[in-house]
Design goal:
single chain, two-stranded antiparallel sheet, 4 strands, 3% strand
Length: 337
Amino acid sequence: MPTRRNGASASSSKDPSSKYNGSNPQRPARQQTSLRTPFLPTSLEALLLAIYPSTLLLGSLFSLLDPSARAAPYSTLSQSHPPDLAPSYFAQKRNFFNVFFVKIGWFWTTVAFFIFLFMHPSTGPSKSLVLTPRRVQAALRWGILTLWWMVITQWFFGPPLIDRGFRLTGGQCELLSSPEGRAEMGDARKLVTHAACKAVGGKWFGGHDISGHVFLLVLGSGFLWMEILPVILRHAGLREERLVAGRKAGVTSAAVETQSVGDVGDAEQERDGSGGVNAPLVVAGLSWWMLLMTAAYFHTWFEKFTGLMVAFLGIFTVYFLPRAIPAMRAIIGMPGV
């Protein structure tokens, strides 16, 4: 009997999966993780992502239930209330936060991200420009989402995808709605972007206009949250619920791929664990507020929904797809891993 116990003990110590069981609750067992898929968000990620459709729903319901918002005239051409009849300061397109925050939202997202990247000790020596592997991979994730933002809202071998989608669904610049306008603008102007249309005094008319505000606010704040949450959470169990497809076979906890933070050491991370986090929190918080205002005062339900889905597609590609594709994960990594 003693021999059997010793043999069982030795067998247990040699079992690679045993270190994820029992005495180490931070690392779930392989048998448990095999029942799940890396594509699914953790409970915390699901809660975070659910905030966005909930916010859009809340804002849209407010616009229906608030007497002043319901009574105010709404222009389908400008996708907003007339400035002099707007039911709220935030219902005016020229409000301070819309002009100086949302309109250049990706700039503020980028500033907040790089403050975090070079200030927080989880990515490398804090307050240092040293390029560690974690910082390089985080910068690659930012680069992919920046490219997605550009393709959707700025340029895609000509007009961005938002403008192309608008044109493909029957939209056009308002100046083109009459024969006189078409003759005046010429054939070359029939493929104008939204910006070009505004520059000549026209407005989008018809077609489906994906909400660029919703897309930008969700993409930017979602990006910041996905980057900072895994490294600022003190509870390792919450942080390492994420699952990944193994390089050989099977699904396991992301904990098995966690890199050492030897660049800075655990002591510095404990001492200065909040460094650089405030900037992303401010930008993400203000983004949520402006998303709520957008939901309440701008665009139709479907336009807001499509803006949300396009943003979620970018987030899924960068933060969930690599969990199932080891080769992709090896290049852009995962936050906190």
